[in-house]
Amino acid sequence: MDNNVLRSLIKWPNVPHCFGWLALDRRGQWRMRDEYAQENKLPGNPIKHATLNDFISRNYACDTSGRYFFQNGPQRVFITLDVTPWVARIIPGETGMQLLTQCDTQIDPQNVLSDELGNIYIAGRVTQNLYEVDYSESFIKKECLSVALLHDHDLGFFSDLAKLHKEACSFRGSWNWNGRELPIDPVYSQELSERFHFVKNPHA
Fold first, then answer.
1. Is residue 201, in this structure, part of any structural domain at all?
2. Are 73 and 90 contained in the same domain?
3. Which of 73, 145, 148, 162 could crosslink 8 through cysteines, CB 3.0-4.6 Å?
4. Is a pLDDT exceeding 70 seen at residue 63?
């Protein structure tokens, strides 16, 4: 969380929250949703400005209710999630492969989930900004168990490292991640938000 953002919260603590204007799509893009997009249930326009994208990513946080938001100075802009609060990419490197979120933070994978739509999810630990409204009413950095949709561009790479067998409506098996065999288990997509404690469409 940027220091100037935290200072603005102290200076202007009661700025009204904003809902519906910002979304995270299934490819990890932040999308601006104006009134027309909201009224017509459109995805909105992807934000292309690199500096703004970085600013949103650095100040991306969630509260103890599982609502994700972008702290824009003193204003909290709650985010509509297309699928999950994180979108993961597989990034090869000299020391092995990494799983990085849309915010360029690392995921420590614990297991893999496969749903009835063919989506692959990485369940693991992610360090994130957490707003503890019920306690100190302040931001802390905390490692939390969460879930990330695997970007569809990396499904082929994922399959090369996986051993799969068909279930009734999904897949089960194992995934070799940097020498670790992680289980792949089936899940229904509608179960994810409750299981991993996130709100897809926050409202006032």
1. no
2. no
3. 73
4. yes
Whole-prediction pTM = 0.90
Q: Tell me the C-alpha distance between 128 and 141, whole Å.
A: 6
Our count of domains for the chain comes to 2
Asked if residue 20 belongs to a domain, the reply is yes
- Does residue 183 carry a pLDDT above 80? yes
Q: Tens of pLDDT along 115-158?
A: 999 899 999 999 998 887 655 557 888 999 999 999 999 999 89
Share of the chain above pLDDT 70, in %: 91
DSSP string, 21-83: EEEE-TTS-EEE--HHHHHTT---EEP--HHHHHHHHHTEEEETTS-EEEEETTEEEEEEESS
**What range defines the domain where residue 102 resides?**
86-195
DSSP character at residue 95: T
- Name residue, tokens 């067998």: 165
DSSP code at position 106: B
Cβ burial, residue 12 (10 Å; 0-12/13-18/19+): exposed
Separation CA 92–CA 20 (nearest Å): 35
92 shares a domain with 72 = no
Would you say the C-alpha torsion 129, 109, 53, 69 has a positive or negative sign?
Answer: negative
| Cα gap 198→133, rounded to integer Å | 15
State how far the Cα of 150 lies from the Cα of 170, in Å rounded to an integer: 15
Specify the DSSP class assigned to residue 154.
G
